[in-house]
Write a structure and sequence with these properties.
Number of helices: 10
Oligomer: single chain
Order of helices and strands: HHEEHHEEHEEEEEEHHHHH
Number of strands: 10
Strand content: 5-15%
Structural class: alpha+beta
Radius of gyration: 20 Å
Distance between the termini: 22 Å
Helix content: 25-40%
Largest sheet: 6 strands, mixed
């Protein structure tokens, strides 16, 4: 979420006339990417051309983002802040049938900790810093400022919804939104399995010197981030590819030891956006780099 969007995050609930489209437009105006949900709180299915991802436009490492289809396709990847898309004829039937409005938390620079029952809420009250909360049917959504990769079932009754995910809009909630804490990021860190050897995968450079992390040296980390910013800024062409490869390099070097902060990621995103990348492209490229590294 951009600083301006942080100050303009919706403080009102659903539109008083009950229109899901009007609610969606209100959210989009605040910089929150939205999409309609059908009955069952699930996205609308892809159009015929995109059915089964036949269009090849599904969001993944090689193709970060949906295809150019004008319909409400590819679930969370269809989320948008563009009022022209939201009010287009291709989306009209979906809004007429919509049962709810959803949003892409990661696309707005947010993370939702989805607490599915009273026990999960009690755990959060004891373990996580207070932030904005939204009541759900069975529990609560705790909303933090900052994006990360999503993960389900990180503990009993707890899911994390941020990048490449969607959350149902249930109103603005109460309380002051705070920065995404390390305790939430730590929930999504995969613990190594001891059941059997892991299959060969992407190699991440080992830390130098008996596993000691040298990245915490301010000069070392600052030089790495500055070089990444420069690489993006000086890209003469192929900005999409340059941004993705730069994010991949930064995560490969610094992504596993807890050195990167939201401020560092923000600097990289700012450099990419100065070259014309959208916030959505930035979050998608970051998520795809994490996926490629198994993070």
């Amino acid at each position: 979420m951009t600083p301006d969007c942080q100050t303009r995050f919706p403080t009102a609930g659903n539109h008083p006339d009950g229109s899901h489209l009007r609610t969606a437009l209100h959210l989009a105006a605040a910089g929150v990417p939205v999409l309609p949900l059908r009955r069952g709180k699930v996205p609308f299915g892809n159009c015929r051309a995109c059915k089964g991802n036949a269009c090849g436009g599904r969001p993944n490492m090689k193709n970060p983002g949906p295809c150019e289809c004008a319909s409400v396709c590819h679930a969370w990847a269809a989320a948008t802040t563009d009022p022209r898309v939201l009010t287009s004829p291709a989306w009209a039937s979906a809004w007429r049938e919509a049962a709810a409005v959803a949003y892409h938390p990661g696309g707005a620079g947010l993370t939702v900790v989805d607490l599915d029952d009273a026990a999960a809420v009690a755990w959060a009250c004891e373990s996580l810093p207070a932030t904005r909360t939204v009541s759900t049917t069975r529990g609560e959504h705790w909303i933090y400022r900052g994006a990360m990769h999503s993960a389900n079932a990180v503990r009993p009754g707890v899911d994390i919804k941020s990048l490449m995910s969607y959350a149902r809009w249930l109103g603005p909630g109460t309380g002051t939104m705070t920065d995404l804490p390390g305790a939430v990021r730590a929930l999504a860190v995969k613990k190594p399995s001891t059941a059997r050897p892991a299959r060969p995968g992407t190699t991440v450079p080992a830390l130098a010197g008996d596993g000691e992390c040298h990245h915490r040296s301010p000069a070392y980390l600052e030089r790495g981030i500055a070089m990444a910013e420069q690489r993006i800024t000086e890209a003469p062409s192929g900005v999409h590819t340059t941004v993705y490869r730069t994010f991949l390099a930064v995560l490969s070097a610094h992504g596993r030891c807890g050195c990167l902060t939201d401020a560092h990621v923000g600097r990289l995103f700012a450099a990419a956006q100065a070259k014309g990348e959208s916030p959505r492209h930035c979050t998608d490229a970051w998520a795809n780099a994490q996926t490629a590294l198994g993070m």
